[in-house]
């Protein structure tokens, strides 16, 4: 009779351990998913910022006049 009771206790213990393992596996899966989403979001924000900087540079170049720059006009008199 005590052997049967012992076996039942082991089964209960094993079920509890399996439940813990499932719980931790799920939590780990959720953490990995959140981490991946966060990395993807950061990458997307970085790309967007990079694109905005590129557009700003292009706008700055188009605003400048194209009169030949600083090297026109001579400046030497003889």
What does this structure look like?
With 78 residues, the chain is mainly alpha-helical. It has a domain at 1-48. Helix content is 79%, strand content 0%. It is built from one helix and no strands. It has one helix at residues 2-63. It is rod-shaped. It starts with a helix and ends in a 15-residue tail after the last helix. The model has no long low-confidence stretch (mean pLDDT 82). Residues 1-78 are annotated as: Disordered. Residues 19-38 have a biased composition (Basic residues). Residues 1-18, 39-64 have a biased composition (Basic and acidic residues).
Number of strands: 0
| Overall shape | rod-shaped
Mean pLDDT over the full residue set: 82
Individual helix count:
1
Structural class: mainly alpha
Low-confidence segments, ≥5 residues, pLDDT <50? none
What is the rounded distance between the termini? 121 Å
Our estimate of the beta-strand percent is under 5%
Query: Biggest β-sheet: count, sense, barrel?
Result: none
Which percent range fits the helix content? Answer: over 70%
Order of helices and strands: H
What integer value in Å does the Rg equal?
34 Å
Q: Quick summary of this structure?
A:
This protein has 78 residues and is an all-alpha fold.
Fold blueprint:
Layout: H1 2-63
Characteristic key phrases:
single chain; 78 residues; mainly alpha; 1 helix
């Amino acid at each position: 009779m005590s052997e049967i009771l012992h076996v039942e206790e082991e089964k209960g213990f094993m079920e509890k351990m399996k439940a813990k393992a499932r719980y931790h596996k799920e939590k780990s899966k959720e953490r990995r998913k959140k981490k991946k989403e966060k990395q993807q979001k950061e990458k997307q924000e970085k790309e967007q910022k990079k694109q905005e900087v590129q557009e700003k540079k292009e706008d700055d170049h188009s605003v400048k006049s194209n009169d030949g720059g600083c090297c026109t006009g001579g400046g030497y008199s003889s």
